[in-house]
Structures are given as structure tokens and as C-alpha cells.
Automatic annotation (TrEMBL):
Keyword annotations from UniProtKB, A to Z: Hydrolase
Coiled coil start-end: none
Protein name: HAD family hydrolase
Pfam families per record: Hydrolase (PF00702)
Transport as UniProt keyword: no
Gene3D superfamilies from the UniProt entry: 1.20.120.1600, HAD superfamily/HAD-like
Species this chain originates from: Flexivirga caeni
GO molecular function, one term: hydrolase activity
Annotated PANTHER family: HALOACID DEHALOGENASE-LIKE HYDROLASE (HAD) SUPERFAMILY PROTEIN (PTHR46649:SF4), PTHR46649
Length: 229
């Protein structure tokens, strides 16, 4: 009797792709420029390098909290966490959030993220099944991400963004919305991402199949080519 499991899962009917670390990397000039802008606006007395380090550390710590709790904490919450770490008041963040988000958008469009591998946009376009982008947005909301995806070569793809869902991967609602966008039951959708908890645990918990990639672009390219019939 030959009942050995197949070496790889069947080709799925739809694909959900994480963005950061799976398809895109940020421009190395973006975060320093954004953090300088935030320092000038919110904490001009703090040395630029100290402020930059505090924002990066807060961003990472909040990312970990979001994955642990399935909660979405966006731009204002992350800046507030950095200010708290610096012993500064946070009231002005909420009051000035609109202005600061607009300034961030201008800098992000001037230093847009790039595909992790130059062949990734074509590899996504060549997929023979529908695709949805399923992303925890962090400080860059979905509204801005849709604009940034265009020059990166991923324009026009539908997206499910955590700040718009109100919860973050691995929360099942994010994956449920991704499957709804594809119009497919979870069991027929493959999620591809670089985070073992947010992407793998989250997708599998709702019944999707999931494939982990390394955040180097080559790994994603290999997975996408494996989805060709
Ligand atoms: Mg990622």
C-alpha cells in the first residue's frame, strides 16, 4: 500500500502574501528621515540618534506585542511608546497625528520600499491563481501602502491591512478577510510569510496552508515558482 504523504501540498486555489520581509524591504533612507521629522516635531531637545534608536526599539517592541496579542497598534501608538521610553509627554501625538502621518507619507513616497528581489513582481503577476496581500501595517497604514505598492511593482493587488481590519496577524479575522477577498474557503488558500507566529500560526489556525520564507526575497521567489502548475 503506497499511502506516504505527498512531499508538498497540492497547488492552492488562491494565495495570500505577507508584504514586509516577504515581498518588500524599506528604503534604508526612509526610517532615518521619518524619525528626524518626528524628532523635529515632537522632541527637538532629544539628540537625533537617541530619538532614532528609541523609535526603532519601540517599533520592534510594539510589533512583538501585536503578534502576541493579535492587536493592531499603529502610527500614534508606536510614537507614544517611543516618547514614554524617552520620559516625554505623549499628549501632542494624538493632537498632531494627521499632520505627522501626512509628513510621513511624503517621506515614504520620496524613499519608497523596494521588492526584496528584482524578479518578485513578475513572479507574483505570473501566478495562475488570485492573490491577496495580507499585511500587518505597523506605522505605515494601508492607505499609504496601496500607494507604495505601485512603484514597487505590486500595484493593483487587493490588500487586507491590519490597521483597516482593526486587529493584526495572527488574529484569525485578518486571515478570514483575506480568504473572503479571494472568495475561497481557507483550506484552498496558501499564505506565504516570513513570521513563524504572525504568518504560520495565524494562517494555519483558520485552516489555511502556510509556507514560511526567509526575508531575503530569494526564498519567496522559490515558493512562488513552486506555485506554478
Ligand atoms: Mg513580514
Amino acid at each position: 500500500m503506497t499511502t506516504a504523504a505527498p512531499r508538498r501540498a497540492a497547488i492552492p486555489a488562491g494565495v495570500s502574501l505577507d508584504i514586509w520581509g516577504t515581498l518588500l524591504a524599506s528604503d534604508p533612507e526612509f526610517k532615518p528621515a521619518r524619525n528626524r521629522m518626528l524628532r523635529d516635531a515632537l522632541a527637538p531637545g532629544v539628540p537625533a540618534d537617541v530619538f532614532d534608536t528609541a523609535v526603532r526599539a519601540a517599533d520592534r517592541a510594539v510589533d512583538e506585542r501585536c503578534v502576541r496579542l493579535g492587536a493592531d497598534i499603529g502610527f500614534a501608538g508606536r510614537i507614544e511608546a517611543a516618547l514614554v521610553a524617552l520620559g516625554l509627554p505623549t499628549e501632542q501625538v494624538a493632537a498632531r497625528a494627521g499632520e505627522l502621518v501626512a509628513a510621513q507619507e511624503e517621506l515614504a513616497l520620496a524613499h519608497p520600499p523596494r521588492p526584496l528581489h528584482v524578479e518578485l513582481p513578475a513572479a507574483v503577476s505570473a501566478l495562475p491563481m488570485p492573490v491577496v496581500l495580507t499585511s500587518n501595517t505597523g506605522m505605515l497604514p494601508g492607505e499609504l501602502m496601496r500607494k507604495l505598492l505601485v512603484p514597487a511593482g505590486f500595484g493593483g493587488l487587493p490588500g487586507v491591512f491590519s490597521n483597516e481590519v482593526g486587529v493584526a496577524k495572527p488574529h484569525p479575522e485578518v486571515f478570514a478577510q483575506a480568504c473572503a477577498v479571494l472568495g475561497l474557503p481557507p483550506a484552498r488558500v496558501r499564505h506565504v510569510g516570513d513570521n513563524p507566529d504572525a504568518d504560520m500560526v495565524g494562517a494555519r489556525a483558520v485552516g489555511m496552508t502556510a509556507e514560511l520564507v526567509r526575508p531575503d526575497g530569494v526564498s519567496t521567489l522559490r515558493v512562488l515558482r513552486g506555485l506554478q502548475p
